[in-house]
Design goal:
Largest sheet: none
Number of helices: 7
Radius of gyration: 19 Å
Distance between the termini: 61 Å
Number of domains: 1
Structural class: mainly alpha
Length: 166
């Protein structure tokens, strides 16, 4: 009986660790979601655009990437695994976000932001499936709520930063 309890605790800790890693990845997901808007004034200065067309294109490319890749990401997750889809999505969006800092042309900014959006599409749905799978049936809704709260907590941090006195 003692061996069975030890095995149950080991599986419980793996499930908790997996859930925590998904929640932490969701925080990084949120950072990649909101990071570029904070530097819009700097982008406009660096690329010497008098209008906001470039900034609108960057935002639109991101949301188009998210929207277009929702269904292909679901098919990918169904064909392979939600885990591989989530890992691919976080890796893709993180690499594109990292390369964003090295961009020297406006078109690169737009394309990289599109790729970040595509990566977000691969992570989000798969992350929900995974966190619901790792939580017990009794706590699956709570776990999904925690995952979405991680995204909202990041947004709250940005709002507090904007409202803080300088």
């Amino acid at each position: 009986m003692k061996n069975r309890d030890n095995t149950a605790n080991r599986f419980l800790s793996k499930d908790v660790a997996a859930s925590l890693s998904i929640i932490i990845a969701r925080i990084f997901h949120a950072v990649n979601w909101f990071n570029v808007a904070a530097i819009f004034p700097l982008i406009a200065l660096d690329f010497e655009n008098d209008d906001i067309a470039l900034l609108g294109s960057i935002s639109a490319a991101f949301f188009i990437g998210v929207g277009i890749f929702q269904i292909p990401a679901g098919i990918f997750a169904a064909k392979f695994t939600p885990r591989s889809s989530a890992i691919f999505g976080i890796a893709l969006s993180s690499i594109a976000a990292l390369l964003y800092g090295f961009s020297s042309e406006a078109s690169q900014l737009v394309w990289l932001r599109f790729i970040v959006g595509a990566g977000m599409a691969f992570f989000f749905s798969s992350g929900i499936v995974l966190i619901a799978r790792y939580a017990s049936a009794k706590f699956s809704g709570f776990s999904i709520g925690l995952m979405n709260s991680a995204h909202s907590a990041e947004l709250s941090g940005y709002l507090l930063g904007l409202l803080s006195p300088r």
